[in-house]
User: Which sequence fits this backbone?
């Protein structure tokens, strides 16, 4: 079978479908990220097809207008704002035939319109229903290459519990944590449902000390996370986390500096960027959603680490990438503890990707510009075979 791509046979530029939005609570950040990527894609080299997923899950054609996809007046944009009125009732559909990469636009009562083949998907989705392996599985079934990790790595990278279990199995250092699954909230006598689950958390805090961080187990962008300094604040923190995910994870506070490191897939394998440090912020209790995206808390790039510390965090970042079978890109988040060691907190298989986000900034400092970074990810996806690999 010829390895020649269809766009090469047809003498056209490869068509990149940038998919963004989605059903998760990170919908708006996904739109912002996609806008930045669309603005950086070389239009002399690629065709771009913007596809937004509305908050209720409908795939829609949207305006190719990155300027409308930025944060304005401290508000994140939404896909619904980018859909033309004439297209409000239509939907975009990928072919279920793995031998065809046609994209179709369908409106009620109208003959579907073929929009041509898509050669690669750039899934700029954050959180469940996109970053967690669900979209990746659909694209695998459709036979369409895509940027980033496959089904398994995406699912593991989204679930903080199983991510940590994988890290531990590979000998990577993680901090103390406890997980409460959905069914644990339903157990107990009438009127006492969830009592054992709450005791489990209280006992954990008694063992490891306050504060603790209460988090949705399968969410990102620091959404739904609460730093809890005392027992009285625990109930509200649990409710907030469970508003985003019925499964929660509670982590002990780790005393130390926050360090991040990017991993990027090159032709010969993954490489780590220079690391960055997230300094303590006085206006926020921790590095939460508003600090990251609204107030743009400044990170230090490169992090003020010794050469030995830099080499160690880079080694751990690549090891985490490999442990979870990741592809394309990962941002690995660490704590440099007071005793001089490193603890890995989590990886993000589709990190924030605006030019001021930490992942692109770390690679900029490592010699890979933002447009080159986008191009490398697209090219890596185009080289990769579909299906099992």
Assistant:
């Amino acid at each position: 079978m010829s390895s020649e791509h269809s766009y090469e046979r047809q003498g056209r530029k490869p068509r990149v479908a940038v998919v963004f939005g989605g059903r998760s609570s990170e919908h708006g950040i996904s739109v912002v990220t996609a806008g930045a990527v669309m603005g950086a894609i070389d239009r002399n080299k690629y065709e771009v097809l913007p596809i937004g997923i509305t908050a209720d899950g409908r795939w829609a054609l949207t305006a190719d207008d990155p300027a409308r996809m930025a944060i304005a007046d401290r508000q994140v944009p939404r896909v619904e704002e980018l859909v033309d009125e004439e297209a409000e009732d239509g939907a975009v559909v990928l072919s279920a035939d793995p031998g065809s990469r046609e994209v179709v636009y369908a409106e009620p009562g109208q003959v579907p319109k073929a929009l041509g083949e898509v050669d690669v998907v750039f899934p700029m989705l954050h959180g469940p229903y996109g970053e967690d392996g669900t979209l990746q599985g659909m694209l695998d079934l459709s036979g369409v290459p895509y940027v980033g990790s496959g089904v398994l790595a995406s699912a593991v990278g989204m679930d903080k519990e199983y991510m940590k279990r994988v890290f531990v199995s590979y000998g990577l250092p993680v901090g103390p944590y406890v997980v409460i699954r959905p069914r644990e909230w339903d157990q107990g006598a009438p009127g006492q449902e969830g009592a054992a689950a709450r005791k489990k958390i209280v006992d954990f805090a008694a063992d490891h000390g306050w504060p603790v961080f209460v988090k949705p187990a399968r969410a990102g962008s620091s959404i739904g996370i609460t730093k809890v300094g005392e027992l009285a604040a625990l109930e509200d923190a649990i409710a907030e986390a469970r508003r985003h995910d019925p499964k929660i994870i509670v982590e002990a506070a780790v005393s130390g500096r926050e360090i991040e490191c990017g991993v990027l897939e090159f032709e010969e394998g993954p490489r780590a960027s220079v690391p960055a440090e997230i300094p303590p912020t006085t206006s926020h209790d921790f590095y939460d959603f508003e600090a990251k995206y609204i107030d743009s808390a400044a990170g230090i790039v490169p992090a003020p680490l010794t050469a030995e510390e830099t080499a160690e965090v880079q080694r751990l970042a690549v090891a985490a990438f490999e442990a979870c079978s990741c592809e394309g890109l990962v941002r690995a988040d660490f704590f440099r503890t007071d005793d001089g060691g490193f603890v890995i907190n989590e990886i993000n298989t589709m990190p924030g990707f605006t030019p001021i986000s930490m992942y692109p900034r770390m690679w900029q400092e490592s010699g890979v510009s933002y447009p080159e970074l986008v191009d490398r990810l697209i090219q890596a996806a185009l080289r990769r075979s579909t299906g099992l690999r």
